[in-house]
Amino acid sequence: EGKIRNRLSELGVTDDYVVVVPGARWIVKEWPLLNFGELCIRLCESGKKVVIAGSPDDNEKGQFIENYVKSDNLINLVGQTTMSELIELIRHCHIFISADTGPLHIANALKKPLIALFGTTSPHRTGPYGGSHVHLIISPTSKATPEQPLVDDPDCMAQIPVDAVWDVYSEMLRKDL
Q1: Core-most of 45, 142, 151, 159, by most CB within 10 Å?
Q2: Interacting residues of 89 by C-beta distance below 8 A, sequence separation 6+
Q3: What residues contact 99, with CB distance under 8 A and at least 6 apart?
Q4: Residue 1: pLDDT over 70
C-alpha cells in the first residue's frame, strides 16, 4: 500500500485526487479522448490533482491526454501500476471517473464516489450497483438494455457531453460526497 502513496507523494499528490481511466476493453465502450482531455483540463484548472490510470494497452491514450492537458496537476500512470497498486490508487482517491471498465468495478467495490459513463452497455446489466456513491451518466442515444446489454454504436458514447460530467462532479463536491 505504501508504495503507490509514496510514488504519488513524490509526484506532488498529497491531498484529494481524482482517478480517471480513459480506456475500456472494447473501444465502443470508451468516451472520446478529446472529452476526457477537456474534462481533465477543467479538473486541473480547478486545482484538483488528476491521476490517469489504465492498462499498458492504453499507453497511447494516456500520452494523448497528457499532451493535450499540459498541466502539472495531471499525473499519467497509465500502464505503470500493478493490479494491487491500481486498487490502492483507487482506494485513496476522492472521486473515480470512467466508462464501463474493470477499474470502475474496483471503485464500486471500494464504495468510492464515482462517475460512470454508459451508452453502449447497460448499467442495469453490468453495474455498478447500489449506493449513493454511484453516479451514472447514460448517453441520451443509448439503446442498451438488460436484454441487449451491448450495442455496437460507435457514436453513442460521444453523445455524453463534457458539461454533463462536469455538472455531476460539481454537484458531488457541493454535497461534499
Answers
A1: 142
A2: 4, 8, 19, 51, 53, 77, 81
A3: 21, 24, 29, 30, 31, 116, 117, 118, 157
A4: no
